[in-house]
Design a protein that fits this description.
mainly beta, 15 strands
């Protein structure tokens, strides 16, 4: 595998970045992330997470005109770091599904070139794709300042487990760094920086994106809301008040 490909694989962390554990409440909790290109500050996309009382976690990714470019649906039937996933990349015409039976991760990947199915062996020390955020939150006290923790990482649709290092930044109570263990891969990919607020909700992500947008590296800043019902899209007041972002109109409750 080329180093560029490994860098892209690691960037899949962003697809659901951000995968916060669902709060124990009847209301629907929302997290809206505005992703800006780190090279010029322009809006690359917006992601909208919904955490339903049933345990389903829904994510939609939007361009600045409101076009949906990717969706993701997750459930957490077992360990929080082992979500089951149905992911669709509309720009690449690609669908990936993940399910877990005991310690076996079942993967199905459909692309325009065909369908590939395979399995991976996972354990408690394996983080499956979007489960990284829930893993950090549930192991918060385990990360001592400045100490690297090594884990295996399963990216949706990829047939290999990667080894990553997670470090809690010294002196920063709510900041973490994630990077590949392989030194050569690190030459091609910047460290991923995660920052949380005092309620352990993801506040920002900085690193690679694997979405098919112009930006390579993004800074995503998150805001958090609640409603009494699911939405078809985020509310207008949650979106950037900027000429860069002009989504189409429509009733978000429909």
């Amino acid at each position: 595998m080329r180093y560029e490909e490994r860098a892209l694989i690691l960037s899949c962390l962003v697809l659901g970045v951000l995968m916060l554990a669902m709060p124990a409440m009847a209301a629907v909790t929302h997290s809206v992330g505005v992703a800006r290109d780190t090279s010029n500050g322009t809006i690359a996309y917006v992601e909208h997470h919904q955490y339903l009382p049933s345990g389903r976690h829904l994510v939609s990714y939007y361009l600045s005109d409101g076009t949906v470019i990717a969706t993701k649906e997750m459930t957490y039937p077992g360990l929080p770091q082992h979500p089951e996933i149905d992911q669709q990349d509309l720009l690449r015409d690609e669908q990936i599904t993940l399910s877990i039976t005991d310690q076996t991760l079942n993967v199905r990947k459909r692309t325009p070139r065909g369908t590939n199915e395979f399995t991976l062996t996972v354990d408690d020390e394996t983080i499956v794709d979007a489960g990284f955020d829930a893993f950090i939150r549930s192991h918060w006290a385990h990360f001592a300042d400045g100490t690297e923790q090594q884990y295996k990482f399963a990216v949706a649709g990829e047939p290999r487990l990667l080894t990553v290092l997670i470090t809690k930044e010294p002196g920063a109570t709510h900041a973490f760094t994630i990077k590949p263990k392989n030194f050569l891969v690190r030459l091609f990919v910047s460290d991923i920086q995660l920052r949380y607020d005092t309620q352990q909700r993801l506040q920002s992500y900085q690193g690679l994106t694997n979405l098919k947008v112009d930006a390579r590296n993004v800074l995503i800043q998150f805001s958090h809301y609640t409603t009494t019902a699911p939405l078809t899209r985020p509310l207008a007041q949650w979106l950037p008040d900027s000429a860069e972002f002009q989504p189409g109109l429509g009733d978000p409750y429909s």
